[in-house]
Amino acid sequence: MHLINVSTLLLEEFTNGTPEYAILSHTWGRASDEVNFQEMSRAAPSLKRKRGFRKIELCAKQAQDDGLQYCWVDTCCIDKSSSAELSEAINSMYAWYRRSAVCYVYLEDVDATDLVNDDYSSLKTARWFSRGWTLQELIAPRKRRFFGANWGCIGEIMTNRSSSRRNGFSRVKSAAGGSEHEREQSRRLTKCIRLITGIPAEVLDTGDLASFPVATKMLWAANRETTRVEDQAYSLLGIFDVNMPLLYGEGRKAFIRLQEEIIRKKIDHTLFVWSTMPGVSDPTFSGLLSPSPKHFRQGTRLRHEGLQIPYEMTNKGLHLQVPLVPIEDDPEEFYAILDTDNESRLGEVHCYSIRLRRVGGADQFARVNPSALVLQPKHRAELAQARHVYVKHFISDAPTVLACRYLSRIKLGCKPKQFLVDLLNVTSSGTWDNEAVTFHLRKNEEFCASIVIRCTYKWHYHAPFDVFVGWVIQKDDARGLRSGFTLLPNGDPFESDTLMCSPRLQPHALLGLEMYTEVSCTVVDGELEAEMWLGERPKAAAKTTPSPR
């Protein structure tokens, strides 16, 4: 660990026996304005001209005033050119903040002189409260002293832990041992931060995280932003007391890996109590793990029941045992009742349930309608039969039968060998994307499309001629996705009457060729997509009896 000597402003490295130190929590400006490890190591004369050097000086001076010889600032105390050191630092960050003698929270965009009569309500506009990394920097330290733009002291919060009297804490002035006014000021500041962040006063006062379910802690991070998407996960490692390697470039997979590490450490069904916003962000199929902390919005009154039935990650997906309640209108769908309680204001206890659909064998499922969380009476969960289920996170395929309800897109294609095929006219109850040759459907609604196509024979030994065909595509819950054809003399328009259409255009209509469609379904980014290919094949040769010799 590299620390700044507050007397010399030089870096010193410690491998064992780290001395007491102050630690800075702040928001980064532009990278070019911040002092990095290499610049701090060289102690270049130009260092003091950088905007970020000012807060390093202020932190060092405050630490010196508090009787500390060292301080730590993340911009310049981590060699980010070393992937090994960066990984060690991020995995150790929570512990470093927790072990600090005091944490100075620098709110650069808040003027302390504006906080009249201990009214902290204007703190809510501070950028510091919206950043992902500052969540653990708020919770982990034993002492947090807040400063405004000109290093004017705003107030202090100190956690009430027995360990707070070790490692030289008595040498740092604290509101906990101050006057009644200082203690009241600390209580007001704690209340304000609780209202801004949603973090209970119990956590701010004691630092206890063990008694809170996973979803509640995710809720604290739901509205925070990070510059790198991977940092949405990496900034929460300490909150959940897990470690994992850093893979910048993996994108949202980092948050999935974080949840997998949580699963290995703790049995807690509240991890699955998340929901997407209905609309564009609402995929058809998903796994049990959330793609983002933003989807955890139910954590305030949530309790986990201390489930003892383990679950595990397998090559078939996440394996767990849950009560399944059949859904009346679809034999392939169930409500999976999670081992969580949600106590309403009326005192009634309900369990959250999510909707699962069988997508493979008897035990392979996917989550559907992830925008919905359904509350079930607790007695219903006690009566339901528990079953083993496997749920993959990334769903890549699904039976065609699923198209009847959850189809989001129909992509058209053709692979003719003897005809050139043109789309002349397309009308449908969905949205037609001419560039992508794709219909966009509304889920859970019937769909019908009427298409006029022109087939031009292309073999050179036939005189050119055109055949106009009406192509009907229809989807409904009862019969699924169907396709039919009819001849259109001279390209006449036609009505989409499936009763007049045949699943195949017979050979006599196309000079001995039969026209048909092939349908396959895939899941792309959580959406069920059907590919419908227009094909042709020669009329089957008549069977002949071999002549006698």
Number of helices, where a helix is a run of at least 4 consecutive DSSP H or I residues: 12
Q: What is the helix fraction of residues, given as a range? A: 10-25%
- Work out the strand percent: 25-35%
Poorly predicted residue ranges? 162-175, 541-549
Q: What about the largest sheet? A: 7 strands, mixed
Task: Please provide the count of β strands.
Answer: 27
- Shape descriptor reads elongated
Radius of gyration based on Cα positions: 32 Å
Identify the strand order in the major beta sheet.
2-1-4-3-5-6-7
Mean pLDDT: 83
Q: Indicate the structural class.
A: alpha+beta
Distance between the termini: 96 Å
Commentary on this structure:
- It is a single chain.
- The chain has helices at 37-42, 53-65, 74-77, 83-99, 134-139, 180-197, 201-206, 214-221, 231-234, 253-265, 378-383, 403-406; strands at residues 2-5, 11-13, 22-25, 70-72, 102-106, 143-147, 153-158, 285-286, 302-304, 312-314, 317-327, 330-337, 340-343, 349-358, 364-368, 374-377, 385-391, 407-414, 419-428, 431-433, 438-440, 447-457, 466-476, 480-487, 505-510, 513-524, 527-538.
- The protein has 549 residues and is α+β, with helices and mostly antiparallel strands.
- The strands form 4 sheets. A 7-stranded mixed β-sheet has the order 2-1-4-3-5-6-7. It has a 6-stranded mixed β-sheet with strand order 20-21-18-27-26-25.
- The radius of gyration is 32 Å and the shape is elongated.
- The N and C termini lie far apart (96 Å).
- Residues 162-175 and 541-549 have low confidence and may be disordered.
